[in-house]
Amino acid sequence: xxxxxxxxxxxxxxxxxxxxxxxxxxxxxxxxxxxxxxxxxxxxxxxxxxxxxxxxxxxxxxxxxxxxxxxxxxxxxxxxxxxxxxxxxxxxxxxxxxxxxxxxxxxxxxxx
Length: 112
What we know:
Number of domains: 1
Mean pLDDT: 92
GO cellular component, one term: cytosol
Pfam families: Fer2
Family: Belongs to the adrenodoxin/putidaredoxin family.
Strand order of the largest sheet: 2-1-5-3-4
Cofactor: [2Fe-2S] cluster
Radius of gyration: 13 Å
């Protein structure tokens, strides 16, 4: 099992979280399975940006984003160089530290 450290997020996990993931599993699926209710409007089909995370540590341990993911990431709120769609970011055997941005594109467009 691989550890994913989730930095505190005001709404989803105010204290942060440490979850266990299977290598080969997506970050999104691991978070959901461990009670971190990250938004995933497209049901993890790489058709939105609501599961956007910023990988603070371990980014280079994963395969780089493909062209489709890159296209969607361009639309993500709060995009950073180490941003990924968590539904497409596949866990390896290296620990990850991820930050879930405060807002998603859905929240921004709804003026939250």
